[in-house]
């Protein structure tokens, strides 16, 4: 049985766990050569070796956008992109992309992407017609999966399902593998998603901003900001009921987002 060598570029542990669970379900033999979480780590590894059969890649990583790397490096293997963002489809195709999985994706979608890789791998000439067909398929897939921004989230409890309006959400917070939303009354709601990235696919980036690795805030609830230290800003939200801080690498982008 062929052993497929796989590189995973993904900064969310739950997403990596899901990917490996789906790989196990395919029944194929594989080896994870490396699991990387940053653009810089990926750049270092790809400068040393490209001995992979396939790359599974997220796009927005903790230190930047992966296309910063793919635009510089000439790759000799295909990429299956798995991301919460649907705005990078054409860039994905230009960077050896053969599939674009929009999170949260099902095993059926994953299996179709994996089967396409197996077919291309089996044909040393990489079946020209199938590669050309990837363009129209990806464009169609992107159109079908262009869910748009949500106006409310369905929140399920043991007894009921209620609806939380996005306009009432002050911020989202990741804590111990659970995503919480805080409303105007500072009430905490458990979200039906595993990562902030999944939720951000449904949020208008003009209204919401990820200020650090674990918190995303809504612009209209910002009361004031003040410098916490040289590279960090304290942000006061919702009549100052809640205070959060930017991470050092987000402060500059946050100021630009605010227009200051």
UniProtKB/TrEMBL annotation:
* Domain of life, per lineage: Bacteria
- Modified residues annotated as 4-aspartylphosphate in this record: 58
Q: Which Pfam families match?
A: LytTR, Response_reg
- Gene Ontology molecular function terms on file: DNA binding; phosphorelay response regulator activity
User: What SMART domains does UniProt report for this protein, alphabetically?
Assistant: LytTR, REC
- What region holds the Response regulatory domain? 5-118
Q: Which PROSITE patterns match?
A: HTH_LYTTR, RESPONSE_REGULATORY
Segments forming domain HTH LytTR-type: 153-260
The record's annotation in InterPro entries points to: CheY-like_superfamily, LytR-like, LytTR_DNA-bd_dom, Sig_transdc_resp-reg_receiver
Query: What keywords would UniProt list here?
Result: Phosphoprotein
PANTHER family from the UniProt entry: STAGE 0 SPORULATION PROTEIN A HOMOLOG, TRANSCRIPTIONAL REGULATOR-RELATED
- The protein depicted here goes by the name Response regulator transcription factor
Species, as recorded: Bizionia argentinensis JUB59
């Amino acid at each position: 049985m062929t052993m497929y060598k796989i590189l995973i570029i993904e900064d969310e542990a739950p997403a990596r766990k899901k990917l490996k669970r789906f790989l196990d379900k395919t029944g194929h033999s594989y080896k994870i050569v490396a699991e990387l979480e940053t653009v810089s780590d990926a750049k270092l590894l790809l400068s040393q070796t490209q001995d992979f059969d396939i790359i599974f890649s997220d796009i927005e990583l903790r230190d930047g956008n992966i296309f910063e790397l793919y635009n510089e490096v000439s790759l000799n293997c295909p990429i299956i992109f798995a991301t919460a963002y649907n705005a990078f489809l054409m860039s994905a195709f230009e960077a050896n992309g053969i599939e674009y999985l929009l999170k949260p994706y099902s095993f059926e979608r994953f299996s179709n992407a994996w089967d396409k890789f197996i077919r291309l791998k089996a044909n040393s000439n990489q079946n020209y017609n199938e590669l050309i067909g990837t363009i129209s398929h990806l464009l169609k897939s992107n159109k079908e999966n262009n869910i748009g921004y949500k106006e409310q989230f369905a929140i399920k409890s043991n007894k009921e399902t209620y609806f939380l309006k996005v306009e009432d959400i002050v911020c989202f917070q990741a804590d111990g593998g659970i995503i919480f939303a805080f409303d105007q009354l500072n009430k905490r709601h458990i979200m039906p998603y595993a990562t902030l990235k999944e939720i951000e696919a449904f949020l208008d980036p003009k209204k919401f901003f990820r200020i650090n690795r674990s918190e995303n805030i809504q612009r209209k609830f910002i009361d004031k900001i003040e410098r916490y230290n040289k590279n960090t800003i304290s942000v006061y939200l919702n009549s100052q009921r809640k205070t959060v801080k930017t991470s050092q690498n987000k402060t500059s982008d946050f100021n630009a987002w605010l227009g200051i």
